[in-house]
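ZP: hey, is the D-glutamic acid complex queued? I don't see it on the tracker
AM: it wasn't, my bad. submitting now with these inputs:
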Amino acid sequence: MDARPIGVFDSGFGGLTVVRALMDLVPQERLVYLGDTGRYPYGPRPLEEVRAFALQIAKYLVGEHGVKLLVVACNTAAAAALDELVAAVDVPVVGVIEPGVRAMLRVTETGRVGVIGTVGTIGSGAYQRSVGQACERGGTTAELVCAACPGFVEFVERGDLGSDQVHVLAERLLAPLRESEVDTLLLGCTHYPFLARTIADVMGPEVVLVSSAEETAFEVRSVLGRLDMSSPGPGGQQFSSSGDVEWFRALGARLLGMEIARVEPVDWD
Ligand code: DGL
């Protein structure tokens, strides 16, 4: 048993999709969430810069909060820095890319699959590599179509989850995926599940949307079990943000569907 909290981080609100899944699956765990809203979006930044941010946050969560496990609830950070994070901290690190790929390959029937993510994530080739490795391991094949969706994250961060503007942008960005007739679409950015209704409207009912949040929570549960690190409880959540904490409290509560009493400010200077 290990009562220390689990650290979860993202560039902003996206990682709350993973927090929600963790609250459902491992409710006895204490979660410390950091949304780096002062420096979002990560997607358009060079991968080296995102790597530096991710390492700084990991050290902060381990050093200041004594977390027992780190969840990189941001595809861009995982694409840029997962191996470096594993090497840099002495606690287990769980990312979102492999769990998402696993879930997607389980769901597809035709083997024609799509992944959408930030410019950084898609440009890094992390999904292309991960799908290739998973197919090799499983002795299967898949035809992968990737598309970057610049602008989606900004809509979520503003709290705009379903306006005409976001719909028009989705029509444009998702057109190549519609044309390639994928049967499964992985939301390879943790912000995107908040736009699921718009994305589903555009892709049509025959395409199954997959989020990595639930599969990542399963992975966390399995790591905790394997290492005998589950918490005896009680569970709880603590939130912090490097940006506007009042905005984080208000929009975070709306996105999570629960009251957030307090958001701790984090100052990187
Ligand atoms: N939620 C982050 C991800 O999964 C968004 C990155 C961003 O801030 O652009 O990639």
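AM: back. The longest helix spans residues 47-65.
ZP: great, adding it to the tracker
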